[in-house]
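Quick board copy: two proteins, each given as sequence then tokens.
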Amino acid sequence: MIKKVIQIALHSLKLVVRDKGTLIWLILMPIIWTILIGAISTPQSKNVKIPVGFLNNDRGIYGEMFRETLKKEKAIEIIEENDEDKMGNLVKESKLFSGLIVPEDFSEKLVNGKAVTIKILKSEKNFSYFLDELITKTANRVSIDALSANFTLEKLKERKIISESEEEKIWRDAFQKADKFFEPLPSVRVEYTVLSVEKRNEQLPAGMNASSPGFAVMFVMMGVFFAGAAMVQERHNRTLARLLTTPTSKFSIILGKMSGFFSVGFIQFLILIFFGQFFLKVNWGNSPIGVLLLTVSYVLSVTGLGTLISVFVRTSAQAGALAVLLSIVTSMLGGAWWPIEIVPELMQNIARFTPQYWAINGFNKIITKGLGVTAVLPNFYVLITISVITLFFAVLFFKFE
């Protein structure tokens, strides 16, 4: 039986491959659409710096020195603020990536060799691990500068070769010279206050990272539906009916046809993934197992839908037209053309009834957010459920004539 199933599946695959027009729709068109839409939606962000608020309450001069040291970092733009509440609101609204608050006694404690705390405001919306490291590095730098200045001043005072009026200038000069020769030794601590928000803004996919999975999902559905249209033509030509005259069971025929549909979609999806990865430089994430689970479950779901369409339409022309219409409309609803997060909530709820939504949502978790298999398991379960339901009814209503 397995041999016959494989033969029938290969025959279905050959019918699709022989049609050059279908191949154009399966491979060439998704590549063209991916490149065009991906190029249009790619954000233009040349030399964009991260805005960081800076509130200097220091009564001395070293808070300003800390700001100047931080400004040397090319990745950030220092935005000076004079009100903590205002700066906190800007951080909440993501107008500032984070906010730094230098305390009043910053200079005093540095000069006296005491630990001092810099407060940082962060929003739950933003992931700023690299920025945390950058600020900590700056704090370490100021710490060792102050330590070196304290050491220099203490030694000179022990030898009684300086006057009290010269101490401030000597400390400052030593601080600046030490800035060129420092080792990370934190005595300036960083304290974080995370500002909660009512709703977290999720990072949206853009450019090729959005168009590659989106149009792959749409055109794979279209490809499987086209394979179903070919089966309608076989039924019209009584090819399926003649198969029943051979020692081949109905189950083997149905399984073989569905395996052929699945093979079309799965191979097409793999080609589009590899093209996106190696030619368009799409980051398909670090979870190949997660991508595989989503791919298999999605192709199974559209296989069931494609078979159902082939059952109820009468001609291959009707099947082809319906394939294009359903693929485009449901893909637009499901988030293949644009991020689903930007449409009204009602449309987002409607999108959940399409397999494209669950596939694209899962791929975005891997590509955009860098998540793994565990994160996409809910998407996988939903797609498998759709597969079971659609395949069941496709088998139940399958027609040979």
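And the next:
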Amino acid sequence: MNLSAAVRLLRPQQWIKNGFVAAPLFFNPSLWHAGPLADVGLGVLAFCLLSSSIYILNDFFDRDADKRHAIKRHRPLASGAVSLTLATVLFVLLSTGGFLGAALLSPSFIGYALAYYILQIFYCLWLKHAAILDVLTLAMGFVIRVLAGATLLGLEASPWIVIMTLLVALFQGLAVWSQ
């Protein structure tokens, strides 16, 4: 087993996106103590596990096309550095761990985690192939993370944080998409 390739399959460099779960915390300094910080930290971890499982799923579906791409052919599944068996085991473990972690936090948090997960599955299968839906789906993933973080803290997300998250994510997504 190639441990380095297995780690690359999880795309840990993308985990920073899951920091949006903590965004509501920054606007509520009264919650900056052990309990809420731990909950948000576990929420971020749950989203890291779930997002990594989705990256595996995406790479599984795209592996044949990735083999023909100049850069993507080096991805762990496309290159054969990670077997389909190992990828499947990692997918199941990460999905299970992410949902178990979410369930331990709160029923509403697991609802947001499930909404994120389902949206990302649709993204992998269809939405990434439609230009505007591609960017909108990615932006909604950020909004769901913020809403999940707010529910962990027992807060109602301000319309402003939701709007600003959506706009920043759309701006970033369109900037990347236009290149």
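Board note added afterward: Residues 3-177 form a domain with the Tetracycline Repressor; domain 2 fold (CATH 1.10.357.140).
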